[in-house]
Amino acid sequence: MPLLTACGGSDSESREGTTSGKAAEKLLPTYVASTVAKPDISAKNGSAAGYTGKADLAALAVSVPDKLGTGAPFKVMSPFWGTPPKPGCAYYKAVDEAAGTKVTWQNQNGTTYGQKLGAVLASSSLPDMVVVPSWELNNNKISSAVTGKFMDLGPYLAGDKVKKYPNLAAIPSDAWRMGIFGGALRGIPMPTAPASLIVPYYRKDIFEKQGYSVPKSADEFLSWAKDATSARAKVYACGDIAWIAGAVFGVAPNWNIDDDGKLRYSIERPEYLESLAWVRKLFDAGVVHPDDRARTGDAGQRFTAGQILVCTSDMSFWYVKAAEQAQANPEFRIDGMDLFGADGGDPTPYASAPANIWSMIRKGASRETVENALAAANFAAAPYGTKERMLVDYGVEGSHYTVEDGAPVKTDQGNSEVINAWTMLAHPAPYEAHPDLPHIARAQVEWQQRMGAFMKKTSLYGMTIVEPARYANLSSQLEQLQIDYVRGNKKMSDVQAFIANWKSAGGDKLRDWYKELLDKNGSGN
To answer: Disordered: where is this region (predicted)?
Structure first.
């Protein structure tokens, strides 16, 4: 279950704390919403916007009428999942030509990116632009290095200065606020919809074929899971669904001021133990696939193969699996199961951070390098329905995609070259759009809106925080303990002992630190 803390810093010697409230407001770019392409479904309850029709590819709008880049070269280091395309490939050349840039990509394995990022930040030589994901900031050395190694972008972007870059100006302010590190705006954000929660996906085609009803409480889910599991047929109800247990039992992640006015960490709440106990029941009942118990293989493949009927993943999984199976298995139907409260009442999901990836520019970069990097980010943040977005997402027609029934379809060259590179520099306000499968975009947004109606924000919502280094290892063993407990390898008393030790080893003192921080900066909710 996620218990991550976003990290930031301050320009003080310790580089601890956060910047929020009025102090943050004066650092932020002026927000100017894009009016280029109106969505079919407007954002609501923290959802993304949705485009459910087919874009008129012959009448795409233009969001970057003039090239903002000068063609001066600069280097970008970014995580990459998959096989990176060759330097100077047709896709890279086409986007550079359109944006007026000349990017040398230093793509690194996304799985081991933290190791590379740490090594680069510890060195004296940095690429001009570096992509920093929030999940790598749990490493205190990396979070501290962000303040020391990357420049303040305020002189280029604060207030009305951002209007030179209209697509960056259209990024929501909450996302920009997460880019404040060390009292300065250092990160260009990749915004996320607050309601882009972890989704419990289910095989709707199999549910309908078997006559299953979608469970609406913790007990109903366990009962259904027992009926649906047949070890003999190698069909199991689910994979490891611990990631939704917090929403089912109403566990506030991280630190939060509860209804009684007291500040608590997630593991101190009784519902945290209840959520763990429920997941343990699923494992004990034998309804979880053995490979999920062993944490081997690919749960997504087990899901599409019908070996598990429910699995959890992020919002992107919905489209990826629907598109993957469209030809391979036309009967395949994926849907998002609505979250439920443990007792059958409303669930209590907590809002996702409004940004979780940033691109940053190294301190000491020349003005020309900075302006070219910002030109690239502005191009990458083009909204849906524009020529720039089409080029970033699909490449060049004829080479990287063809048009079939009015929708773009990637070619083999497109699939090998148009992968996650440019999209890591910046992103527009959250949206869902899948021209080839528009019903999936609608389903995604409508699910977010339904769940968003129950969503809460923690007291730390929208804040980028770095904790004092002395507390860095307090929770380092927690994830493994949770994994072991739900699989029956540890006892509840072991979890309770961990919590007691956590409090005495520094948790209570860390609480005092957070109290002071919240008293100074105010609550995020």
So the answer is: 1-23
